[in-house]
Amino acid sequence: MDFEFTVSGVRQTISLDRKDDRVTIRHGDTTLEAEVRIISEDSVSLLVAGRSFLVIVARDKDKRHVWLNGRTYLVQSGKEEQRFAERGDERAQKGKSVVTAPMPGKVVKINVAEGEAVRKNQTLAIVEAMKMENEIKSPLEGFVKKIYVSAGDLVDSEKPLLELEPK
Amino acid sequence: MFKKILVSNRGEIACRIIRACREMGIASLAVYSEADRAGLHVQLADEAACIGPPAAVESYLNMDRIIETARAFGAEAIHPGYGFLAENPEFARRCERAGIVFIGPNSRALELVGDKIRARQTMENSGIPIIPGMKHVAADFAEYAAEARKIGYPVMIKASAGGGGKGMRIVCSEEELRPGLESGQREAKAAFGDESVYLEKYIEDPRHVEFQVLADNHGHIVHLFERECSIQRRHQKIVEETPSQALTPELRRRMGETARKALQVAEYNNAGTVEFLLDRNKKFYFLEVNARLQVEHPVTELTTGIDLVQQQIRIAAGEKLSLRQEDLVQRGHAIECRIYAEDPSRNFLPSSGKVLYLREPRGPGVRHDGGIYSGWEVPIYYDPILAKLIVWAETRDSACARMAAALDDYVILGISTTIPFLKDVISHPRFLEGATTTAFIKNHFENWREKEGPADGLTLALAAAALDELSPSRKVGKAAGLEKEVYSPWQMLGRWKIGEKP
C-alpha cells in the first residue's frame, strides 16, 4: 500500500507491505524489513535486522508528530498538504508584503505609521509573548500600506500585522 | 513548624515546593489563575484556590488576593518560588504585617538587594569588588548619554529591579542608546512593575559564577559553593553546572567568603545567591544578589546533598542552621538544562499549544523537575519554562554524557522545545572542554539549525506514520469538519478568539 507524506516541505512516498507482524518498507532506494509490535496507542516497536527502534506518534489536527531516536519529524499526509498549498495560494496572492505575527502574543507597539517609508530590517512592531519582546522586522524596502492591528491587541500566529508595498 | 504553606507560583517550581511540603508533613495550598486551572501544581497540592484572571498582574502578582487567600485557608506561610512576587519587598512587608511568614529574606534586606543600584553601593562600601557604572537612575536621556560616554561603550542597560535578563540590553554606540533604553524600560516595567534602569560597563566574554548561600535568623551563614551559569541566550541562563571549571580551590574559597560577607552586610536571611562575573584574568566582580530560590538550585542540591527548599522552610520557621561551613563538601558534578517552550529553529520564538505526548527521561543520576503533562495546554501568559532536566555523575565528562543521553531520551511532542538545541550545546567540543563564557551561544550557535538525521530514521518515521494511518481508530483529521471547511488562512487560527477584521 502506498502513502504520501510531506516532511519539512519535501514530498515523501512510502510503500508498506504488511504480512501479520512483518512489514516490508520501500522508501526511495531503501528497502527495510521490519517486525512490528504495537506497544500502546501512541507507540510502536520496530525490529529491523536486529536493531530495535521505538517510534512514538502523536496526532495533531492535520499532522503527526513522530519521534524516533531523539528526533521529531513533523509528518503531514499528502492530502492535507494539498490543502495547505491551496491555503498558501490564497495568501500568496498578497505576496510577501503582508507581515504576520510569528507567534501568538500581544502587540506592544507599532513603530511605523501608514504611508511611512521603511528600510529592510527596520523594526515595524513589537510583539510580546511569554514575557519576552520580539521585534518584527521589515522583510523589504518600501512603504507601509495598511496597519491591521494596534498596540494592546492579542494576535494569533500568522495573523497579519501590516501590509507593505515594495519600493 | 508550619502546618500549611501557600505556594504563590505556578509550573515546575510550584510543584517542587509542594513536594518539599509533602515530605515535611506540611499541607500545601496552590493558587492559580483562570488560565491554570488544569496546571500540574493544582493537581499536586492538597488544596487549591483561584486568584484571578490569566494576566499575572491580576493573579500571581495580586498581593492582596494572595494574602487574603492565605488567611482564608489558614496558611501560616507563603513560599513565593522565583519570579512573580519572590523579590518584591512590598509583598514581604505586607506578609509581615498580616502575620504571615514570607519564606524568603526579611523585607529590609529584600529592599536593599532588590535595588540593584543601592546594593552595588553598599557592597562597594564594604570592600566588595563591583563593575564600574552608574549608582543611580538618570533623570533623562541626556544624563544616560553622558553617563554612557563616561563609562565608555559598550555599556549594559540593566533593570534596577531586574533579574532573569529582563530589561537587559547591550549598547555599543550612542545611536543604539535611546531605543535600547526605551525597550529595556518597557520590558522592566512589564516584568517588575518598575521601569528604572541603569548603565554598567560591559565586560566582554566573562563567566557567570554564582554562590548559593543560606543564612538563618540567628546570624549563622554558610555558602554551598558555586554554580557556573555562563551558557546564556538573551541573558537567560539555559545550562548551569557545578562545580565551575574556572575556579581553583583558593578562588572558590575567596569567592565563597565574599558571598557570605555580602549577605552579612545586607543583614540577609534565608536562601540567597550572590552572582559574580569572572573576567578572563580570573578577577571577580559582585553583580547582584538573587534574593530567592534559583531556577538552577537543583545542581547544588545534587552535589551537596542538601534540600534547599526544605532548608528555606526550616529557616523561615525560625530553626537554626544545622550545617557548618567546614562540613560542607561538593561531590561529583551536576548539570541542568532548562527546557523552554521555544522553537530554536525559528529564532527561539515562544511556542504555545498542547503537549500531545510527554516522556520524561529516567535512569541513574537523572532528575526531572517539571510542571507539564501529556494533554496540557501551554498558556501564552507566562514564562516559557516547561521543565528542568538535571543530571549528576562522578565527573564532568560522565555528567555531560549522561545529560546527552537523557536529552536523547526526552520526548515532548506537540510543541517546539529547546531540547534539540540543548543536545548540540552539551555535545559541543568547547563545552566539553569546559570553555564556557557568556558569549558561548553567540560565538558557536548563531543561526543554529538542527542537523539532518540518519536516512533510515526518516524511512522508519514515515513507516510508523503509515502504520498509524492504517489503524482505523487513529485517522488524522477524523473530525469530519475538515472535509467541509472553507479554505482560508483563518482556519489555521488556533484557540484564540480574534475579533478584529483583517
What does this structure look like?
- The complex is a heterodimer of chains A (167) and B (502).
- Chain A has 167 residues and is mainly β.
- Chain A has 2 domains: 2-82, Glycoprotein, Type 4 Pilin (2-Layer Sandwich), CATH 3.30.700; 101-166, OB fold (Dihydrolipoamide Acetyltransferase, E2P).
- Helices cover 10% and strands 59% of the residues of chain A.
- An 8-stranded antiparallel β-barrel of chain A has the order 1-2-3-4-5-6-7-8.
- Chain A is elongated and about 65 Å long.
- The model of chain A is unreliable at 84-94 (pLDDT under 50).
- The longest helix of chain B has 19 residues, at 174-192.
- Chain B has helices at residues 11-23, 40-44, 63-73, 89-98, 107-114, 116-125, 141-151, 174-192, 249-265, 297-304, 308-316, 396-408, 419-426, 429-433, 440-444, 455-470, 481-484; strands at 4-7, 27-32, 47-50, 77-79, 101-102, 155-159, 169-171, 197-201, 207-215, 221-233, 236-242, 270-278, 284-290, 333-340, 342-343, 349-350, 353-354, 357-359, 366-370, 377-378, 385-393, 411-413.
- Chain B is built from 17 helices and 22 strands.
- Among the domains of chain B are: 4-103, Rossmann fold; 132-201, ATP-grasp fold, A domain (Dna Ligase, domain 1, 2-Layer Sandwich), CATH 3.30.1490.
- In chain B, helix 4 (89-98) packs antiparallel against helix 5.
- The relative contact order of chain B is 0.10.
- Mean pLDDT of chain B is 91; it is low at 477-502.
- In chain B, the strands form 6 sheets. Chain B has an 8-stranded antiparallel beta sheet with strand order 13-12-9-10-11-14-21-19, with helices on both faces. A 5-stranded parallel beta sheet of chain B has the order 3-2-1-4-5.
- Helices cover 34% and strands 23% of the residues of chain B.
- With 502 residues, chain B is α+β, with helices and mostly antiparallel strands.
- Classes of the chains: A mainly beta (167), B alpha+beta (502).
- Chains A and B meet through strand 1, strand 2, strand 3, strand 4 and strand 5 of A and helix 8, strand 16 and helix 16 of B.
